[in-house]
Specification:
The chain has one domain: Uncharacterised protein PF10387, DUF2442 (NE0471 N-terminal domain-like, 2-Layer Sandwich), CATH 3.30.2020.40. The chain is 17% helix and 34% strand. With 82 residues, the chain is of the alpha+beta class. The strands form two sheets. The chain has a three-stranded antiparallel β-sheet. Strands 4-5-6 form a three-stranded antiparallel β-sheet.
């Protein structure tokens, strides 16, 4: 069975995603700076995709796989350790 997102909602600090297997997973908005800094209207502009959630206006994509693995925004490289 493939697990997919069914619904998305927010509170002040958390992204909540209802999954097709009836689980609800929460992730801190701090993991996703584009969502953290977006207006309520911008956050509400989500669309479900086959792999996760997409916000066209925010240029943000979050995969269900990444949420389940506990990964936040991986679009930026972490600083290298010398």
């Amino acid at each position: 069975m493939t697990i997919s997102a069914k619904y998305v909602r927010f509170d002040e600090q958390t992204l909540w995603v209802e999954l097709s297997d009836a689980r609800v997973i929460g992730a801190p908005l701090a993991w996703f700076p584009r969502l953290l800094n977006a207006s309520a209207e911008g956050r509400a502009g989500w669309e479900l995709s086959p792999c996760g959630i997409h916000w066209e206006a925010l240029d943000e994509d979050i995969s269900v796989e990444g949420l389940l693995a506990g990964r936040g925004d991986i679009t930026r490289q972490p600083p290298s350790v010398v």
